[in-house]
Amino acid sequence: MRCPYCRSTKTRVANSRLSREADAIRRRRECLDCKRRFTTYEKVEDITPLVIKKDGRREAFNRSKIYQGIKKACEKRPISIDDIEQFLDGLERKLQESGLKEVPSTHIGEQVMNQLRRWDDVAYVRFASVYRHFSDITEFMEEIKNLAATKGNKESA
Distance from first CA to last CA of the chain, Å, rounded? Predict the structure, then answer.
């Protein structure tokens, strides 16, 4: 393992334990050159399906790409990082358990948008504006009207 601080490969494991979810081993390591400590996680490599992009390209599922998009949408909103990570854990698990070799990016995007809608209207609209590529303010306003109508129906029920 390479030290993230000095790039040395001379490291030792100071201690190991299971992660909270017991799906990974958390290791505290110490660099023998610079003496700094860092944490690594070891987990079984899961096989997730390829993602079929809108233009037909196929690429590996990239959890961090989805995480960054959600995090940006939730910036300064009352949604915790733990909630985001739990959602992503569940999404990734569903994809792995589906047994599919390929999944459309739209399927993943819709699941993210549905979760954001449940969490926070502002985060949902932020994500939707990027995901749906609103070309002008009219499309943006239409999405807000639809969201307000949906919320109004739920409150009157």
Answer: 57
pTM above 0.90, yes or no: no
Give the domain ranges of the chain. 11-42, 50-156
The bridge status of strand 102-104 relative to strand 50-52 is parallel
**Which of the four pLDDT bands, split at 50, 70 and 90, describes residue 153?**
low
Write the single-letter amino acid at 122. Answer: V
**Which CA distances in Å does 45 have to 30, 96, 104?**
24, 11, 22
Within 8 A by CB and 6+ apart from 141, the residues are: none
Contact 134, 140 (CB under 8 A): yes
Do residues 101 and 61 touch, judged by C-beta distance below 8 A?
no
Token readout for 48 is 């997730």
- Under 8 Å between Cβ of 92 and 84: no
